[in-house]
Amino acid sequence: MTKRKPPKAKLTALIVGEGSHDKAFLNHMKSIYDGRETGQKVTVDSADGGSPSDIIKSTIRKRHHADFDRRYILMDSDVGISHKDRKRAKSAGIELIISTPVCLEGMLLEIIGEAAFGTNQACKDALHPLLSGRPTMAKSYTEKFTKPILDGSAKSQIITLRNAIGNMKAK
């Protein structure tokens, strides 16, 4: 009997969202773009809010429990990120993906052709009624943010997330 070849080692990716809404949306994207053919295991987690510094520190701590080949943080742009924090993330091998305008909800509103407002709360108030359920559930994003909608988005953040989750080279 011939020996079975050991399975190829999979690449691993960690994508951390700023909060529970980000995590739900990232899990929605994972359900669309991650599959066996990607050759990687994607882990989506949440930093549970806080300052950019707190989110970066939390992600670095998560990294120490498991080694990931690639690490990303999706965070809002409503609070500035200091040079020191950007440097800390870079030295830890973490790529920052900044939701613009303002926050995840503002970015998602623009993707579906709606106006994004100047504050986090205004963007949340505009987006959440458009979802098919609670914003903390991945399935709530399935109707408005289909694969064709996400594939058609020219937002660099969405392109980066598609490429990261699908283990594709940036085009």
What is the topological layout?
Blueprint: E1 11-17, H1 20-33, E2 40-46, H2 52-65, E3 70-76, H3 83-91, E4 94-99, H4 104-111, H5 120-127, H6 147-152, H7 156-166
Parallel strand pairs: 1-2, 1-3, 3-4
Helix pairs in contact: 1-7, 4-5
Care to give the gist of this entry?
This protein is α/β, with parallel strands linked by helices and 171 residues long. It has helices spanning 20-33, 52-65, 83-91, 104-111, 120-127, 147-152, 156-166; strands spanning 11-17, 40-46, 70-76, 94-99. It has one domain: Rossmann fold.
Please, could you describe this protein's structure?
Helix 1 packs across helix 7 and helix 4 crosses helix 5. By secondary structure, this protein is α/β, with parallel strands linked by helices. The protein contains seven helices and four strands, in the order E-H-E-H-E-H-E-H-H-H-H. The model has no long low-confidence stretch (mean pLDDT 92). Helices cover 41% and strands 16% of the residues. Strands 2-1-3-4 form a four-stranded parallel beta sheet, with helices on both faces. The protein has a single domain, classed as Rossmann fold (3-Layer(aba) Sandwich). Helix 1 links the parallel strand 1 and strand 2. The longest helix has 14 residues.
